[in-house]
Amino acid sequence: MLDPRGIYELDEQAVARLWPTPPEPGAGPVLLHAVAGFVDAGSAGEVAVDHLLGIGEVTRVVTFDVDQLLDYRSKRATMTFSTDRWSDYDEPHLVIDHVRDAEGTGFLLLHGAEPDVQWERVVAAVRDVVERLGVSLTVGFHGIPMGIPHTRPLSVTAHATRPELLGDHTSWFGTVKVPASLAALLELRLGRAEHDALGVTVHVPHYLAQSSYPPAAVVALEHVQRVTGLDLATSGLAEAVQEAKTEVERQVRDSEEVAAVVRALEEQYDAFARSVGRTSLLAESAPIPTADELGAEFERFLAQQSGD
């Protein structure tokens, strides 16, 4: 592997301002991450990142060299053509920002485009930053499609490098193989290097997976708040949440086919809620999917994403 330091630039002046005294190992800020490019049902991660960047002071700390990391022909950026000239370029980025929460507590946020290549090198670079800045906990978040109705509370799958980080969380899965992501590899590698890392995956109703669904972002952020103690001002998303719920209800009313799907999912969800000692979201009468079936469902979703 090539030297990880060759793909990113650390702003030493910003680091000196933010941390006049270098943090002790494990006593520094929390690092949150949500990179675009993998499964993010309901745009849970994207909406959450946009919200986080708007709640407090933002300082750029790390900038990755995306020219080394992206395949521009597979992830074409957007340019703006105005009448007779090119006027703008939506430049792709992968960065780590220092952000302050609603109470002024600083944390780090890794966001931008998921690299197409050199994953191990990028992960090693992030690990360098984790160790340089004494990061205490790394937390990722995104959404996945799930057969649940929007009329019931959204559930999550949490995973971590140590069981103690999960508390009393109940897992909805056994063992399953799914397509890899930078976020998952980062968590795995950090754990093997004895750094604490955790991920929160929000279960988004599958019929809303391709739409922006702010309630999923709020659920993700609320879980992040619980494990980090940060104040992420989720009330700032209240209007967007209400608008999304209102629009979904309108579409359900306007389509009997969609309404029938929602009713069926409600019956299944409620049957599970009435059961005791179950660790599956499926009702008693429903077959439990195999690992292969779950993996195939992820692959179908990914195929739909790449086809758009």
TrEMBL record:
SUPFAM superfamilies: Cgl1923-like (SSF159659). Transmembrane segments: none annotated. Pfam families: PAC2. Signal peptide: none annotated. This is PAC2 family protein. It comes from Cellulosimicrobium cellulans (Arthrobacter luteus).
